[in-house]
Amino acid sequence: MEKTKIIVDSTSDIPVSWLEKYDIDIVPLYIVWEDDKTEPDTRDVKQLMDYYDRLVKAEKLPTTSQPSVADFKNAYTKAINEGYESILVLTISTKMSGTFNSANLAASEFDIPIRVVDTKLASAVIPLVARYARELLDKGLSLDEVVGKIQEARKNKKFHAIFFVSDFNFLVKGGRINKVSGFVGNLLKLKVGVYINEEGEMIPFDKARGSKKAYSMILRKMEEEGVKIGQKIGLIGIHCNAKEDIDEMLRLIKERYDVEFFDYSNTGKVISTHVGIGMAGFGIEVLE
Question: How many domains does the chain have?
């Protein structure tokens, strides 16, 4: 069986334990502060807690930038030197970042099979795609067959990203979401529900005042997106310093669904910059 490395970008917000478990590497995006000081995204929880504090205190939000072609070339070279014969790259939606283009340009300079997939997703749902890919590779499917299965699964709504933000202004200022009628204005005290649609765009779908109504909003959206009550699902609870919201929503989800596996993850620097402190939600994989 061909030895295949899976690579994701840092916006995948992957649980650290999954890196070794599913043989995954990360290529980081970058944070750029007003003084042009640049820092890479990270999965180090201590660094993330410090970054959350800096975000709260920042007078002006930093910007974010995609990995360079050289960053991906370095990652591919590392995998080849470690004996991998092919590489599968899963990137954030092209509607949100140019990361796919950097990965693809770098791939064209190598002789081994490298397939770059625009997942049309972001954050903690991408690790679920990676887990699914590793499962298929372990069954002996070829790299191209795995790519086909991922694209088919995406069309069949196997994967979902549904969450709420506690400060909608982060998404608007970051330019990653359009100002939608009914969602503009002062939403500081409201939780705004957001999901990623089939085209790979983040779309606000509802708003709620208070945590309990926000939890109901998320559960309702899961059903609307075709995650049927009683189905077997896998989850990653993703949050930006809001673990208590994940715990409460998980309890409610377990009353309605057959949760086969679950893991926590913190939003990385890039995703945190766009969604703001208090974001909470789930990457969801429908398993049957």
Answer: 2
